[in-house]
């Protein structure tokens, strides 16, 4: 099975964590060296890694602590991780590690076992998604799901299905045009980039017939939080009777979507791009990084089953 570099973008070599810098893609495949938890937390805040990369990084932070003989700092590090990005529920991960540390089994073995299970579960999630597709399907996706879209395409090929993708740009960070399109074309899958505002027109022209997106947060009632713009795509898909599938993480302890704290990122991230000002200096910006899609708009949740 071939994997995109984004499928597993974090590595631990010796005492140093290597993070694939997603902000440099597709122009440069480069890794950041991280020597301690503070540098790792900064990488999360600055979106150097995102989606599953953040989950992996959390676990590798704790493995790094073990290798540095600093297990006494577990609680302090857990608090630092939990404060990085409010919408992404890292607490279930940090609570899990703290719980393991109090047991009889080796904490390192527990973390490595979790990571191995996560890799297997992600593959199963992609395979399940591929079974929902038909030969000739054109799938609309928004943002980036860390290597799962090309994996879905590979499973579909093995099932004798030819599929293609439409990727929204996903402004302002352009994860769709920079990351999703890049990894899909590397996998030999057809991909067409559209702006975020073209979704309704593309659906009305019958150019796509399925939607698959990821989710950064799943609540107990099935609501999800995902990259800003997902909610309006779900509403539009409902109007055009297009199935809307979500690749979900494990559910958090929150009851419903309105309980999710939405991260508001600095407005300069949408007013500037790579140092270039895109708007008048007097203009203000508002950048909620996520929105909430109600469960009633979701055709099927494709769950990531992780043993806790």
Write the SSE topology.
Elements (H helix, E strand, L loop, with lengths): L9 E4 L2 E5 L10 E4 L2 H9 L6 H16 L6 H9 L8 H11 L5 H24 L7 E4 L6 H11 L5 E5 L6 H12 L3 E5 L4 H6 L5 E5 L2 E2 L5 E4 L2 H10 L4 E5 L19 H4 E2 L2 E2 L12 E4 L6 E4 L5
Parallel strand pairs: 4-5, 4-7, 5-6, 7-10, 10-14
Antiparallel strand pairs: 1-2, 2-3, 8-9, 9-13, 11-12
Helix pairs in contact: 2-5, 3-4, 5-6
Main beta-sheet strand count, sense and barrel state = 6 strands, parallel
Biggest sheet strand line-up: 6-5-4-7-10-14
Helix content: 25-40%
Total number of beta strands: 14
Keywords: Isomerase
GO molecular function: S-methyl-5-thioribose-1-phosphate isomerase activity
Family: Belongs to the eIF-2B alpha/beta/delta subunits family.
Pfam families: IF-2B
Task: Characterize the structure shown.
The protein has 308 residues and is of the alpha/beta class. The protein has two domains: 10-120, translation initiation factor eif-2b, domain 1 (Four Helix Bundle (Hemerythrin (Met), subunit A), Up-down Bundle), CATH 1.20.120; 125-303, Rossmann fold (3-Layer(aba) Sandwich), CATH 3.40.50. The chain is built from ten helices and 14 strands. The chain has helices at 37-45, 52-67, 74-82, 91-101, 107-130, 148-158, 175-186, 199-204, 230-239, 268-271, and strands spanning 10-13, 16-20, 31-34, 138-141, 164-168, 190-194, 210-214, 217-218, 224-227, 244-248, 272-273, 276-277, 290-293, 300-303. It has a six-stranded parallel beta sheet, with helices on both faces. Strand 4 (138-141), helix 6 (148-158) and strand 5 (164-168) form a beta-alpha-beta unit. Helix 5 packs across helix 6 (148-158). The protein is globular. One of its GO terms (biological process) is L-methionine salvage from methylthioadenosine. InterPro entries: IF-2B-related, IF_2B-like_C, Initiation_fac_2B_a/b/d, M1Pi_N, NagB/RpiA_transferase-like. One of its GO terms (molecular function) is S-methyl-5-thioribose-1-phosphate isomerase activity.
């Amino acid at each position: 099975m071939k994997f995109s570099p984004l499928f597993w973008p974090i590595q631990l070599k010796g005492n140093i964590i290597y993070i694939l810098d997603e902000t440099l893609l597709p122009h440069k495949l480069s890794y950041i060296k991280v020597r301690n938890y503070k540098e790792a937390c900064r990488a999360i805040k600055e979106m150097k890694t995102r989606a599953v990369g953040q989950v992996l990084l959390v676990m590798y932070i704790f493995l790094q602590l073990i290798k540095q003989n600093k297990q006494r700092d577990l609680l302090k590090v857990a608090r630092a991780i939990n404060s990085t990005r409010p919408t992404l529920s890292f607490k279930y991960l940090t609570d899990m590690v703290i719980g393991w540390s109090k047991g009889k089994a080796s904490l390192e073995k527990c973390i490595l076992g979790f990571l191995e299970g996560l890799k297997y579960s992600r593959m199963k999630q992609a395979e399940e998604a591929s079974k929902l597709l038909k030969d000739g399907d054109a799938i609309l996706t928004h943002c980036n799901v860390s290597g799962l879209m090309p994996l879905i395409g590979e499973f579909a090929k093995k099932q004798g299905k030819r599929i293609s993708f439409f990727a929204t740009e996903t402004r302002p960070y352009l994860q769709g045009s920079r990351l999703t399109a890049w990894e899909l074309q590397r996998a030999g899958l057809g991909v067409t980039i559209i702006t975020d505002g073209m979704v309704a027109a593309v659906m009305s022209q019958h150019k796509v017939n399925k939607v698959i997106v990821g989710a950064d947060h799943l609540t107990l009632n099935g609501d999800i939080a995902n990259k800003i713009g997902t909610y309006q795509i779900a509403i539009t898909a409902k109007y055009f009777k297009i199935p809307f599938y979500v690749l979900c993480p494990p559910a958090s302890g929150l009851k419903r979507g309105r309980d999710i704290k939405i991260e508001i990122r600095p407005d300069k991230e949408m007013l500037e791009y790579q140092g270039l000002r895109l708007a008048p200096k007097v203009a203000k910006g508002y950048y909620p990084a996520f929105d909430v899609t109600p469960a009633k708009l979701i055709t099927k949740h494709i769950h990531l089953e992780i043993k806790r």
